[in-house]
Design a protein that fits this description.
Oligomer: single chain
CATH architecture: 2-Layer Sandwich
Distance between the termini: 29 Å
Structural class: alpha+beta
Order of helices and strands: HEHEEHEH
Number of helices: 4
Number of domains: 1
Radius of gyration: 16 Å
Strand content: 35-45%
CATH topology: Alpha-Beta Plaits
C-alpha cells in the first residue's frame, strides 16, 4: 500500500543538523535560540571536541564544541539562516543529515515541536 502523494513518514521529514562552534558559550547560544524559534526540537551540546582541518593553507588542531540539532527538512533553510546570524565563523560547519530510521514517537515529537 502506498502513502498518498505529498505525505511522508516522520523519518523522511526529520533531520540531524551538525554545527561546530568556537566554544560552549557560542554553542549554547545557538542551541537555545534555534529551539526558542522552534527551528529545532532540541539541541545537544558536546564539548570539547578536537577538530583537525586546513584553513587558509594552514593545518589547525583545536578545540571546538559540537551542537547536534534535531529539525525538519521544511525548517532547514530558516535554521541555517539563524545559525549563520549567530555564528562567529566566516564559514561555519552546518551539515544536515537525513534520518533514515528512528523511534516513531520520538520522530513524531520532533515534527510536533518544529513548526513552520
Amino acid at each position: 500500500m502506498q502513502r498518498p502523494s505529498g505525505t511522508k513518514k516522520p523519518s523522511e521529514k526529520a533531520l540531524v543538523v551538525l554545527v561546530t562552534a568556537r566554544d560552549s558559550q557560542e554553542a549554547l547560544k545557538i542551541g537555545k535560540r534555534v529551539v526558542e524559534a522552534r527551528l529545532a526540537a532540541c539541541a545537544n551540546v558536546l564539548s570539547p571536541i578536537r577538530s583537525i582541518y586546513r584553513w587558509e593553507g594552514k593545518m589547525v588542531v583545536g578545540k571546538e564544541t559540537l551542537v547536534i540539532l534535531k529539525s525538519t527538512v521544511d525548517r532547514y533553510r530558516a535554521l541555517e539562516k539563524l545559525v549563520l546570524e549567530l555564528h562567529s565563523y566566516q564559514v561555519p560547519e552546518i551539515i544536515a543529515l537525513p534520518i533514515k530510521r528512528g523511534f516513531r514517537q520520538y520522530l513524531g515529537w520532533i515534527l510536533s515541536e518544529v513548526h513552520t
